[in-house]
């Protein structure tokens, strides 16, 4: 895949994000996970912890896909795009996703498929409203990715993608969410659903403790011995 989009802002974000994430993982992550609490379930089945804001770059978060008892939203689109650039360092396990090309007009021959676009709005109380939009969008699979522990991956603003972590795999990533780029967050799906609101749930203390304990154990096991 080409370095999409080919602009200086995205290039600078990538160049700054990698050393920032790797330095935090090396020097701060272990102690930070020992003091975390709460956390939120993302509708796609991973737990989110906000860590802090990196000046000039964006928000730093921890994402963990546990290998048991994930809480997912049973309805709605999963292929989506963000309004910001994203950089991610895989801490443990193998991260998997699919990137998609998209077009507002039918591009002609090829494996393009028509989908319904949905607008995603952030509401008070950690809720999201998902509303179908008029018209049809066309997407096709562009790249399957597998990213191993200690490697980086990036998703530019406006790039449709779908994260595919098997339910029996434990995966954690350290993620940097850049600043808004003027591209609205949205999602697509084959079928058309009516407007719905999803309430994101907070992890129970026992859930958070179990997941973070597992993460700390895996991080300790992956450290080189002296």
Q: In a few lines, what is going on in this structure?
A:
The protein is of the alpha+beta class and 226 residues long.
Strand and helix layout:
Layout: H1 8-27, H2 29-35, E1 40-41, E2 47-54, E3 58-65, E4 79-81, E5 84-92, E6 95-103, E7 113-123, E8 127-132, E9 137-147, E10 152-155, E11 160-163, E12 171-180, E13 186-189, E14 196-199, H3 205-222
Antiparallel strand pairs: 1-2, 2-3, 3-12, 4-13, 5-10, 5-12, 6-9, 6-11, 7-8, 7-9, 7-13, 8-14
Protein name: Cupin domain-containing protein
InterPro entries: RmlC_Cupin_sf (IPR011051)
Q: What do these coordinates show?
A:
The protein has three helices and 14 strands. By secondary structure, the protein is of the alpha+beta class. The strands form two sheets. Strands 4, 6, 7, 8, 9, 11, 13 and 14 form an eight-stranded antiparallel sheet that branches. A six-stranded antiparallel sheet has the order 1-2-3-12-5-10. The mean pLDDT is 93.
Largest sheet: 8 strands, antiparallel
Shape: globular
CATH homology-level superfamily: Jelly Rolls
CATH fold-type name: Jelly Rolls
Q: Helical proportion?
A: 10-25%
Average pLDDT, rounded to a whole number, is: 93
Query: What is the CA-CA span between the terminal residues?
Result: 38 Å
Annotation, overall tally of beta strands: 14
Q: SSE string, helix = H, strand = E?
A: HHEEEEEEEEEEEEEEH
């Amino acid at each position: 895949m080409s370095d999409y989009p080919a602009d200086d802002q995205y290039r600078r974000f990538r160049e700054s994000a990698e050393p920032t994430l790797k330095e935090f993982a090396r020097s701060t992550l272990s102690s930070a996970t020992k003091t975390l609490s709460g956390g939120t379930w993302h509708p796609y089945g991973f737990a989110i912890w906000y860590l802090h804001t990196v000046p000039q770059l964006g928000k730093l978060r921890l994402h963990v896909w546990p290998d048991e008892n994930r809480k997912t939203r049973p309805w709605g689109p999963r292929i989506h795009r963000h309004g910001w650039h994203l950089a991610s360092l895989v801490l443990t396990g193998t991260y998997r996703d699919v990137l998609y090309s998209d077009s507002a007009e039918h591009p002609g021959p090829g494996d393009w498929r028509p989908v319904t676009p949905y607008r995603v709005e952030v509401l008070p109380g950690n809720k999201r409203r998902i509303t179908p939009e008029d018209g049809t969008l066309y997407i096709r699979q562009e790249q399957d990715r597998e990213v191993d522990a200690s490697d980086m991956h990036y998703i530019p603003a406006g790039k449709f993608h779908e994260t595919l972590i098997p339910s029996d795999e434990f995966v954690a990533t350290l993620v940097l969410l850049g600043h808004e780029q003027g591209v609205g967050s949205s999602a697509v799906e084959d079928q058309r659903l009516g407007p719905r609101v999803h309430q994101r749930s907070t992890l129970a203390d026992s859930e958070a403790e179990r997941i973070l304990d597992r993460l700390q154990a895996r991080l300790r096991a992956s450290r080189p011995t002296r």
